[in-house]
Amino acid sequence: MAGKICFWCFKARGNHAVCPHCGYEPGSDSGQAYQLSPGTILQKRYVIGASIGFGGFGITYKAFDAMLRMIVAVKEFYPAGLVNRGGGEKKVGIFSGEKKAEFQKQLARFLEEARNMALFSKEQDIVNVFDFFQENQTAYIIMEYVDAPLLKEELKKRRFSQEEAGGYMIALLEALEKVHGHGIIHKDISPDNIFLTGPDSIKLFDFGAARLEGSERTEAVVVKAGYTPPEQYTSQDEQSLSMDIYAAGAVFFEMLSGEKPVDSRDRVMNDELKELKDFGIRADDYLQRIIFKAMALEPRLRFQTAKEFKEALIYHKKVRLPQEEIRKNRRRKQILAAVLAAVILLAGGALALNLTVFSGRGKIDVAKLEPEELSVWILAADEQSGEELIRALSESAARVCPQLTVHAQAAARENYMQMLERAMETDSLPDVFCTDGLDDGFWNAGHCMELSRLMHTMDLSDYLYLEDLAGEDGVYALPTAMQTGIVYGSEAKAAGLAQPDSAETPGGIKEAGGADMDTLAQMGGTLDYADTQGVFERFQNQDDPLAWIAGDLSDMDRVEAVTVEAVPSTDFTAVPLLKEEKLVGSMEHWYAVKKSGDKNRQDAAMTLLSLMLSEGMQSAAYMDNRDGLPLNRAVLDSYQENKLTTYLNFLKDYDFEQMQLYEGDSICEIIRRETGQAEGPASP
Predict the structure, then answer these.
(1) pTM for this prediction
(2) Residue 141 burial (CB < 10 Å; 0-12/13-18/19+)?
(3) Vertex 483, ends 480 and 486: CA angle to 5°?
């Protein structure tokens, strides 16, 4: 066989010393005596050819699958120092004692690598695994053979342009999204393990070091100088996805600069990571910032997900440098420490926290409140967020006014009105409750406290909209959130509404320009509203002319869910609703205090209402779901820095301070009124 088959292209070469088909000359490679001899057959189907790679843990061969008639790659487990093999032999000899035990441990990891790679056997950007098995006292992984250059080989020849490097990096991050989606950390991202398969396309391989996120450390630590974050050098820290983020940033740095970055261990004492300009490269500032953030020495300062990293590249986001983030966090801690120091009171030998919103201008003294048991009803997006809100409110109340006992209950919108109606019928309204959806009849009945006394105690400049509200007569409820109008739909069904330049969001929704009220007024039967019965069923019908659903952020999850069947994800669009080039928004989640003759109870209830607007509650309510945007300016700033870049990037260029705000109406109601439609368009 050896004299007839070329062990590189696996075509017949006859008696030629050099293969007439591919030019391969037997013996010209760097094969060693301990490697499998060309022509060795595994599993009665895989014909071993020339070796194409070897390292401390294994040998990779080019091979031929005689059953499927195609060239494959075979990775053999051969850990140096634990086994040996004589020339011409197939079986490996395993050393005895502790080395044998170590061999068995590493063999298990090798088979784990095979199983990990098999999870991605149908992905285009990850090398596919076809088979794995044990034979010859060791194990083998059968993979697709990739006829493409490795990134490390290309880096020896040149450095990449900004556009080319960015395209490859986005492809790598998309592959990492899939890997991380299975809770797997690759832990060996480097130019050694990345094939460049075409413009803006790669194949990632070598999962030998991969581990599950959060898993315990092992004694074996896989490192590559320049690409390994500092925490990976130790066996003490928890495994984290950010390890791969650091390594990907290092790869990006090398592609642009042409130089391997300084090893992280050297940077710990003296951070000397060069800027791109030091290499004579005129790169955009956002690229430098992205690299520095990805390669931050502290994991918490890096991008937390591959998706976040990718979106920063796609949208040219000017992210904060690690040192800027440190300064910002330091300022926040200093402010918090000053606030806490100012509000800590000694009462009977115990420490109690006073509310920061009560600055002495009002007449409510939280420290002097008598014990009360208060009921609170919260409007929540779903059961999980409701539980989180209850927990956040209870914890806040316990810190601020421990003399109060809070009985909180959360309900979704579809159940909440029924609860309120029953409570009004039985005169059993809670002390603090959300009033969304209540009509004028309720307010005329005089169920609630006027809140001007509470507002006089608050620093309203900390919030959007509340300063304007304070100037109005008779305020009986305060909003805790705002909604922005969003129009969702299929580009194929409604071409021309949105601007043509668009980009795809992580959820498969395509971003585009805004939809103006005047445009919507002209759309006729192509538009329906998210609160219209049966609208989602209509939208799923490919033969229905319904093209757009008008709603708000709270509709995004439902809309995304139906689009899987309704339209191709790449054809689905979300655009902000505009009026005179400003976002259209409304205040919602209005909370009131039940009227009571007991002043202590009134003050206690208003204290709880103020807690609904505190940073802690606003974060709990609106940072982790799409049920609205926070009014608290500090929380909204954090939301814009984090969430908007991930989920709602199409809102990033709009100023929330300049929104066209409407009181009390849903987005759908606003659209109907502004476009002169009493009801949604009739179904065909």
Answers:
(1) 0.50
(2) buried
(3) 170
> Rounded to an integer, what is the distance from CA 67 to the centroid of its chain?
43
Q: Is the pLDDT of residue 621 over 50?
A: yes
Q: Are 57 and 82 in contact (CB under 8 A)?
A: no
The residue whose two tokens read 């803006």 is 200
Question: Tens digits of per-residue pLDDT, 326-384?
Answer: 655 544 444 444 434 443 333 232 233 333 333 333 456 777 788 989 999 988 877 77
Among candidates 21, 27, 22, 29, which has minimal Cα distance to 52?
A: 29
pLDDT digits 0-9 by tens, 141-154: 999 999 999 999 99
HSE value, Cβ hemisphere, 13 Å, CA-based, for 240: 23
- 472 Cβ partners below 8 Å, 6+ apart? none
With vertex at residue 344, the alpha carbon angle to CA 338 and CA 345, rounded to the nearest 5 degrees, is 150
Q: What's the rounded Cα separation, in Å, for the pair 643 and 148? A: 38
Classify residue 159 as exposed, middle or buried by CB count within 10 Å of its CB (0-12, 13-18, 19+): middle
Strands 83-84 and 548-552: unpaired
Q: In what order do the strands lie in the sheet with 129-135?
A: 41-42, 46-54, 58-65, 70-77, 138-144, 129-135
Per-residue DSSP letter, 320: P
Are the CB atoms for 629 and 476 separated by under 8 Å? no
Run of H or E residues at 52: strand 46-54
Please name the amino acid found at residue 240.
S
The helix or strand, by DSSP H or E, that contains position 433, with its residue range, turns out to be strand 432-434
